Amino acid sequence: MSDARELQSSEDRDALHDQFDEVWGNPRGWRALTIVNHTTLGLRFMVTGLGFFIFGILLAMLIRTQLALPGNAFMGPEMFNQVFTMHGTVMMFLFAVPMMEGLAVYLIPKMLGARDLVFPRLSALGYWCYLFGGLIICSSLLLGVAPNAGWFMYTPLSSAAHSPGINADFWLLGITFVEISAVSAGVELVVSILRTRAEGMALHKMPIYAWYILTMAMMIVIGFPPLILGSILLELERAAGLPFFEVAHGGDPLLWQHLFWLFGHPEVYIIFLPAAGIVSTLLPVFCGRPLVGYRAVVLGVLTIGFISFGLWVHHMFTVGIPQLAQAFFSAASMLVAIPTAIQVFSWIATLWLGKPRYNVPMLWLVGFLIIFVCGGLTGVMLALVPFDWQVHDTQFVVAHFHYVLIGGMLFPLIAGLYYWLPHFSGRMASERLGKWGFWLVFIGFNMTFLIMHWTGLLGMPRRVYTYESGLGWDMPNLISSVGSFIMVIGIATLFLDLALHFRFGRPSGKNPWQADTMEWATSLPPNPYNFVSLAKVTDRHPLWRDPDLGESMARGEHALTVIDHGRRETWGVDPLTGEVREIIHLPGNSWLPFIAACCIAVLCLSLLTKTYPLALFACFASVVVLLRWSWENGAHPKAAPDAKTQPDEPPLHSRTCDGPGLWGMGVTLLSNGALYLSLLFGWFYLWTVAPNWQVPNAPVFNHWLLFASSLLLTLATPWQRQVLARLRRGDDRGLFACQIGLAAVGLVQAALLLIALRSEALQPTARAHDAVIFVILAYSFGHALLAGVLSGLQALRVRIGYVSGEAPYEPLVVAQFWYYNLVVSWCSYFAIVLLPPTFGGA
Q: In this protein, which residues make up the domain named Heme-copper oxidase subunit III family profile (predicted)?
């Protein structure tokens, strides 16, 4: 009887998994382009990132070959500038951040006990934008027109007068395209971590890696928009002649540096934090004990995320900023060492109190600790303004940031890849090849960059393609170049190990490292749905507490096992307590993200070639595809084929007033607001600092149009709030009329702003003053038009029945966009109309 019951149980289990495969399974052939599952997309991000990494390494080898000997003619100055620019661009924008995001996209739902990320199609759009944007940037080198002004694109060198070709345009448009991907993933990860954890997993019970990724994702959401804005402004200057960075017309080239480093210094920690999260995840496993000081580490991570936004002038000590500002940013640069040290001491204490097992991942972690601490010490040195003045723009700085970025990111990443390799293949890598690879990389890295500190102290500048003999730089450069080739041999050994293990690696079995986190409760490799049943998790180390948890989940002994409705589902939980609120139903595979990315790619290419009619068509097509995407949402039959739930289960999120879309819109608007605040920062910076700031004697547009549009939106807000308050109570009376009215308000507001934009007195190509006003008005116009269109679509959905008192979700999401427009409209009015005359600026 017992054998019969076990056989029946096995058959039921297989049947249940087959049902889940029908709903969650990935298609093959051309339809693989429609996949939105986080496991597949995470792997695609990582494989693509490794491809760009190989490309970046090849560029680095060209640089080191050129600098190995004095007077080397291996490359000319133009080719060197292109290779140098592309190396930094590829490593920073196409490898480091996307690789870490890809790993997070793969791991986070599994670690949190969820089945997928909360916006799967957004993840798919992010991947395709990343791939297409990266290919566009890299193709420029093959075409001989690669960016050549440095990966930081400082103006005026990158302006049209000094870089007249399309080299810089490849960088500006391609990077903006790639940043769409980064911000998309940031929004996705923030909302998923806060809203789709396992039942009972309160914030203080989350895996430590999730805290690192949450902080990183929030930093991306806030930190990347300044660079996006800077790229847009510089491209507008190059293509349309709007003089944001031209001193003669009231601009200032230092504005670019401020916008770039408002992104650039948080970027360092955006790269470091997820790598540190890997360290904090792996050390307890290989030491056989929990991480020492969990709460202190979490506090340190959050503190780093906050302080990192106050360090951007750390890179600008030599540009002539006031001494008070230098003192402030110098102190802030040293202050960030405190929360970083908290993590380092936590890792050391965990090693001290545990019983370390020195497998290959552990070797990389120890190598990381050595190299990162060295990089941190030179970082404190560079935070001292007098020392920074001496070594600024020398090879010392190059050595420092390679110690921080390679030591702080690449070493933990390789440790993590070895650790999670059974997830990708179900097999274990070779210990022998792995150790050979580690020692070659470790020795080669220190030969390359440790000696470079000496070269920098001897006065060798960075960004030079050759140098004369007899300056004392010959031997150090040769040693650095030899070391770089040793390091590359080590990396090649790692790739060989990676390739061979898929064929010859021994099967890993379940949880081969005796790990504690939920990703090891899946099958290896995992199913598309991760878990056939969702368990309650109230411990930070669930697999140490219950080693058989994965088996019981696979047998369907926990929650949310019904699948005959055809929906992809996961829990929606309270952000703080982890208490289940609703069932989040997730969209399935779709062509729409791929098509939208293709339209944006056409837009990018048409702007590159200055085919503006095609660019206008591609922009329109992109908006149409994205709006079509939004149509299959909420109560739409394709989004929720069957709205029924089990008697003991909470409602579907589309039938509540607090679904993940509200959070997604809020985080997206946070990113949007960071871009807008960066624009206002540019306005006030030029107003107060630009040496030739030119203020016209008469107003450049009718200010009453902006006031009227703001007032109109203000008057419409109480009506909207009243209708939405009734909707929250299940009463949808007046909802259709409200959405129609809001659509009309949006279109009227857009018309008023368009009239203001077309003012004959507004001369955006003649004065930076007018150019900034033009961009602010254009920004408001685009948002007003979009708000009107969204409300019009909501009215149509109300009429069809997709939105009602029973499905009240969507108008509440769109309302956030309206409130954002209201705030932006009045801020713009105060910034460009009221404040300048108040302070004597007009």
A: 580-838
